[in-house]
């Protein structure tokens, strides 16, 4: 059985696949155009996919030989799951192993924005240390403030846990269902979407993205948020309207923003949001630790190996396929 991997992943995953007797195909030039990527996919049985290549109607029509897809990500918003299931194609993902790393980045962004760290670092790099100024670009402390989580699943829970431990923050959340563990362990309170945006001092997005939720965080939401609030998005850029976010930040409707994901992604070089002192933007590095990436490689390989043995994928985005 052939496994096409579009970009090199940590060696652990590749070794597991090879030891299982699978033929691994990794192109030398791993910066493939869409057409080149499709060409590889057409000629393979299973795909281990790194990145946001779209598994849409075009893909499924042009690549009828593909029998299984193992994503090198927990998010699967780039896959038409209904179509994959209809065609009996299991889609694997990589939950849990990256929750700590990704929530670390949400926490880091929150702190970076609250203390204007990236702005000050840029000043130092520009040779502009500045004099001690009692009123210049002051940060705000997070102790006892309210953290609002939109989408309290695996990553949202870890973010809430860190904020509770580090700053004694009160946790409120809005989710598809109640998270009993968070309510018990963190005293997290379930609130309506409107209450979430009105009451949060830090609003952190951790839900799985669906196209119908595009621009959910837009001007009408930012208007209702507190003036001292910080908006954090490490989930998917599609959740926020970036122009509206810029306006909310410039007009002082909200206090700051930390983004690991942008809309569009990658961010445009001339996006004015990059010029703001109350913003920190990272290039989608939530899972970019050695530990998380090794874990992702292991889970993706486990998925392909299970499939090759006629077994169920152990980490599956469309369990309904079985
Ligand atoms: N920045 C990065 O590098 C990374 C980003 N992510 C993103 O984080 C997302 C979350 O990952 P996990 O915590 O593992 O997923 P999860 O499935 O454990 O948690 C997501 C939670 O969001 C809730 N949810 C989904 N849609 C909702 C809606 N419309 N309203 C209210 N709640 C909603 C779900 O009920 C679930 O509890 C991924 O789907 C991915 O997009 C994940 C890993 C790395
Ligand atoms: O896993 C994901 O969903 C990511 O965004 C990158 O790790």
From TrEMBL:
- Domain (D-isomer specific 2-hydroxyacid dehydrogenase NAD-binding) spans 109-286
Q: Which UniProt keywords apply?
A: Oxidoreductase, Pyruvate
Could you tell me which PROSITE patterns the record lists for this protein? D_2_HYDROXYACID_DH_1
The record's catalysed reaction(s) read: (R)-glycerate + NAD(+) = 3-hydroxypyruvate + NADH + H(+); (R)-glycerate + NADP(+) = 3-hydroxypyruvate + NADPH + H(+); glycolate + NADP(+) = glyoxylate + NADPH + H(+)
What EC number(s) does this enzyme carry?
1.1.1.79, 1.1.1.81
Cellular component GO terms held in the UniProt record: cytosol
Family per record: Belongs to the D-isomer specific 2-hydroxyacid dehydrogenase family. GhrB subfamily.
Question: What is this protein identified as?
Answer: Glyoxylate/hydroxypyruvate reductase B
Organism listed in the record: Chryseobacterium indoltheticum
Q: What is the lineage of its organism?
A: Bacteria, Pseudomonadati, Bacteroidota, Flavobacteriia, Flavobacteriales
């Amino acid at each position: 059985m052939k496994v096409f991997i579009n970009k090199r992943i940590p060696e652990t995953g590749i070794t597991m696949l090879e030891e299982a007797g699978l033929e691994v195909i990794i192109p030398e030039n791993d910066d493939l155009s869409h057409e080149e990527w499709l060409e590889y996919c057409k000629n393979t049985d299973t795909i281990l996919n790194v990145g946001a290549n779209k598994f849409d109607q075009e893909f499924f029509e042009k690549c009828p030989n593909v029998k299984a897809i193992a994503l090198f990500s927990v998010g699967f918003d780039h896959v038409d799951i209904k179509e994959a299931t209809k065609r009996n194609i299991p889609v694997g993902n990589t939950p849990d192993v990256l929750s700590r790393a990704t929530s670390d980045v949400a926490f880091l962004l929150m702190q970076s924005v609250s203390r204007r760290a990236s702005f000050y670092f840029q000043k130092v790099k520009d040779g502009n240390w500045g004099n001690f100024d009692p009123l210049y670009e002051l940060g705000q402390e997070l102790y006892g403030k309210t953290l609002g989580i939109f989408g309290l699943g695996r990553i949202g829970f870890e973010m809430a846990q860190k904020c509770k431990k580090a700053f004694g923050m009160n946790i409120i959340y809005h989710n598809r269902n109640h998270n009993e563990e968070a309510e018990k362990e963190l005293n997290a309170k379930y609130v309506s979407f409107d209450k979430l945006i009105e009451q949060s001092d830090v609003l952190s997005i951790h839900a799985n993205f669906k196209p119908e939720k595009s621009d959910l965080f837009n001007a009408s939401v930012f208007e209702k948020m507190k003036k001292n609030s910080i908006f954090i998005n490490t989930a998917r850029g599609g959740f926020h309207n970036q122009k509206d976010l810029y306006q909310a930040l410039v007009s002082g409707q909200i206090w700051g923003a930390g983004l690991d994901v942008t809309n569009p992604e990658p961010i445009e070089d001339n996006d004015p949001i990059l010029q703001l002192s109350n913003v920190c933007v990272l290039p989608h590095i939530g899972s970019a630790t050695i530990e998380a990436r090794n874990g992702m490689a292991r889970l993706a390989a486990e998925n392909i190996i299970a499939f090759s043995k006629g077994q169920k994928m152990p980490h599956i985005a469309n369990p309904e396929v079985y």
